[in-house]
Specification:
There is one protein chain. By secondary structure, the protein is mainly α. Helix content is 73%, strand content 6%. The protein has a 3-stranded antiparallel β-sheet with strand order 1-2-3. Strand 2 and strand 3 form a beta hairpin. The longest helix has 36 residues. It is globular, with a radius of gyration of 21 Å.
Length: 357
C-alpha cells in the first residue's frame, strides 16, 4: 500500500466495502468487495479466453507455447502465428468489447432504462451511415472511415438529442426518438449499398455485419491511443453517473450540472461507439447486455462503468472465438454471433420488463 494510505472496512447496506484514502487524504473512495471479486473473475476469464483464442485455429498452438511466444522464447513460425496474426485480433476484441460495455453503461445510466444502448437508440446506425458515405462515395482510407463514423454518430446523437429535448433530455423520449431515427438511417444505409458498385457494395455489406476478420496491428495502435485519451473523461463521468441517476434536483443540489454532464456523456458514449464501428463495423447487443449482466453479477443498485467494460470485453472475445470455431474452417463475422445471442437476451429483457408493468 502506498505511503500515507490507509484502509478501513465499512459496512453499507449490509455489504462489506473498503474505504481508501490515498496521499494523505487527498483522494478518497469506497470499493465494494463483491465488485472487486467480480471484476477479478471477469478479467481472469477474459484473459483466459484470449489465451485459448491465440492457440486454436488451423495451426494449433498449446497454451505453454502461446505464453512462450508472447515472451519471445519460441520458433519463428509459432511467433508469427501467435503474435503477428492472432494477437492483434484478441487485443482488439478485448479493447472494443470494453468500449462497447462502457458505452452501453453510459447510455443506460443516462436514460435510466435497460433498453438505452447505442444500438437500440440508433447511434450505431448513425456511425455506420457516416462510414458508408466515406467508403462508398468518397473512397477514403481507414482514418477517413473512422472520421466518417465519428461524424455520423455525433450528427445522429445531436439530432436525437434535439428532437427529444423538452426542458431536458428524458430517457424514454431519447429511446423512442432514437428508434425512429435508427429506422430512417437503416433505410438510408440500404439505399447507399444498393446504389453502389457491386464490389464496393459487397465489401460494405460484409463490413456492416461487424467483423474482426483481417484486422491487424494497424488497427490496434489507433484504437489503444483513442481509448487512452478518453480514459480520463470516462473516470470523471463514471463518478457523476450515479449522482445523475438520483434525479436532476438531487444532482444539482450536490453540485452536478445536469444538462452539460448529460451532453458530455452523450458525446463520450458516441465516441466509443464510433471507435468500434470504424475499426470493426457495427457490433450489436454487447452494449445492451454487458451493463445489465454486470449489474446483476455485482448486485449494484445502478449501472457501473468498469464492470460493464470488463464484461463487454469478455463477451466480445468469447463471441469472436465462437465466430471463428463453431463453423470452422468458415469464419463468421462476430456481429452474427452477437446478434444471435443478443436477440435472445433482448426477448428475455422485454418479457421481464413487461411483467413489471
Amino acid at each position: 500500500m502506498p505511503r500515507g494510505a490507509e484502509s478501513s472496512r465499512r459496512v453499507s447496506t449490509g455489504r462489506p466495502t473498503w474505504t481508501l484514502r490515498l496521499v494523505r487524504g487527498r483522494f478518497s473512495g469506497r470499493v465494494d468487495l463483491r465488485t472487486l471479486v467480480v471484476l477479478a473473475a471477469l478479467g481472469v476469464l477474459a484473459l483466459g479466453v484470449g489465451l485459448v483464442a491465440l492457440g486454436v485455429g488451423d495451426y494449433e498452438v498449446s497454451v505453454p507455447d502461446v505464453l512462450q511466444a508472447l515472451f519471445g522464447e519460441t520458433t519463428t513460425v509459432v511467433r508469427m502465428v501467435v503474435v503477428d496474426w492472432r494477437l492483434p485480433r484478441v487485443l482488439l476484441a478485448l479493447l472494443l468489447g470494453a468500449a462497447l460495455g462502457a458505452s452501453g453503461a453510459i447510455f443506460q445510466s443516462m436514460t435510466r432504462n435497460p433498453l438505452g444502448s447505442p444500438d437500440i437508440i440508433g447511434f450505431n446506425t448513425g456511425a455506420y451511415t457516416g462510414a458508408l458515405v466515406v467508403i462508398l462515395l468518397l473512397g477514403g482510407s481507414y482514418y477517413d472511415i473512422a472520421a466518417g463514423a465519428m461524424v455520423g454518430g455525433l450528427v445522429t446523437a445531436g439530432l436525437v438529442y434535439a428532437l427529444a429535448y423538452r426542458g431536458g433530455a428524458q430517457g424514454f423520449r431519447l429511446i423512442i426518438v432514437g428508434i425512429a431515427i435508427s429506422a430512417v438511417l437503416a433505410s438510408v444505409n440500404t439505399w447507399l449499398i444498393i446504389k453502389a458498385d457491386l464490389e464496393k457494395a459487397m465489401s460494405a455489406a460484409a463490413w456492416g455485419a461487424g467483423s474482426l476478420n483481417g484486422l491487424s496491428w494497424t488497427q490496434v495502435a489507433p484504437v489503444t491511443i483513442i481509448l487512452v485519451v478518453l480514459l480520463p473523461a470516462l473516470v470523471v463521468l463514471s463518478r457523476r453517473m450515479g449522482i445523475l441517476e438520483m434525479g436532476d434536483d438531487a444532482a444539482q443540489a450536490l453540485g452536478v450540472r445536469t444538462e452539460p454532464t448529460r451532453l458530455a456523456m452523450l458525446v463520450l458514449g458516441v465516441a466509443l461507439t464510433a471507435l468500434v464501428t470504424a475499426a470493426a463495423g457495427p457490433i450489436a447487443f454487447i452494449s445492451l447486455a454487458a451493463p445489465q449482466l454486470a449489474r446483476r453479477l455485482t448486485r449494484s443498485p445502478s449501472v457501473a462503468m468498469l464492470p460493464s467494460a470488463v464484461l463487454g470485453a469478455l463477451l466480445l472475445v468469447v463471441s469472436d472465438l465462437a465466430a471463428q470455431r463453431v463453423f470452422a474452417p468458415t469464419q463468421l463475422p462476430v456481429g452474427v454471433v452477437t446478434v444471435s445471442v443478443g436477440g435472445c437476451y433482448l426477448v428475455w429483457l422485454l418479457a421481464r420488463e413487461a411483467r413489471r408493468q
